[in-house]
Amino acid sequence: MIKGVIFDLDGVLVSTDELHYEAWAKLARELNINNYTKEDNKAQKGISRMESLEIVLKKGNIAYTEKEKEALADRKNNYYVEMLDSLNDSAVLKDVKEALAMLKNRGIKIGVGSASKNTPLILEKTGLEPSIDAVSCGIDVTKSKPDPEVFLVAAKKLCLPPNECLVVEDSYAGVVAAKAAGMKSLAVGPERKLLEADYDSETLLSETDWDLMLKISYNF
Ligand code: G6P
Ligand code: MG
């Protein structure tokens, strides 16, 4: 049986994906990289800040030292955190609050598994923090998705074995990470059909779907 659901943050619980894109686009423009697009941003979903930076820099033809790269990643993060200043509960995506309440009523533990080091700040600003039993994020891990570490840490914090956890994701790296962690996965978001998750759904609110997913028990 599934006893815990681990949600990705950006693009699953909150609409911060757009802000990540805007902050990277601003940095790209300053570096005279004018061909960074939303398509490139798709490949940045779920992966770490430094790996995301590499995707932007690949669009230009300048080589940077590690120290310079760290400064560029910090610069992007400063833009992003500035944008988060006005973040509030209106950034919580459709059906999320209702789905979290429904899971809580069923005695399901709720975790967050995200590469973002800004996870605690975002959960606090959007008012989601009290609904979450355990947070595992970029601060807790050394390897980012598709490595399973972030989800394994979340399961540990929830005191559940991996095979009793279901991951909700909107990124390919995240679905691969869930599988590598030995967890079932539910894909949401515009790319959900392409992510090769165990399930995909347009809405987080279908009680029948949750019943089906939560009842799954499987052997390793
Ligand atoms: C999430 C987002 C990525 C972002 C990463 C790191 O996984 O989907 O686009 O690069 O978090 O976020 P951070 O807030 O630590 O820069
Ligand atoms: Mg995401």
Automatic annotation (TrEMBL):
CDD domains reported in the protein's UniProt record: HAD_BPGM
Residue positions of the active site: D8, D10
UniProt KW Ligase keyword: no
Gene Ontology BP term (one): carbohydrate metabolic process
Record InterPro entries: B-phosphoglucomutase_hydrolase, Beta-PGM, HAD-like_sf, HAD-like_SPP, HAD-SF_hydro_IA, HAD_2, HAD_sf, PGP-like_dom2
Superkingdom of source: Bacteria
Cofactor note: Binds 2 magnesium ions per subunit.
Cofactor: Mg(2+)
Residues the record marks as site: Important for catalytic activity and assists the phosphoryl transfer reaction to Asp8 by balancing charge and orienting the reacting groups: S114, K145
Binding residues annotated for substrate, in chain numbering: D8, L9, D10, W24, S52, K76, S114, A115, S116, K117, N118, K145
Amino-acid positions noted as binding Mg(2+) in the UniProt annotation, renumbered to this chain: D8, D10, E169, D170
Molecular-function GO terms, alphabetical: beta-phosphoglucomutase activity; magnesium ion binding; sugar-phosphatase activity
Keyword annotations from UniProtKB, A to Z: Magnesium, Metal-binding
Database matches in PANTHER family: FRUCTOSE-1-PHOSPHATE PHOSPHATASE, GLYCEROL-1-PHOSPHATE PHOSPHOHYDROLASE 1-RELATED
Homology family: Belongs to the HAD-like hydrolase superfamily. CbbY/CbbZ/Gph/YieH family.
Protein name, as recorded: Beta-phosphoglucomutase
Species in which this protein is naturally found: Lachnoclostridium phytofermentans (strain ATCC 700394 / DSM 18823 / ISDg)
Source lineage: Bacteria, Bacillati, Bacillota, Clostridia, Lachnospirales
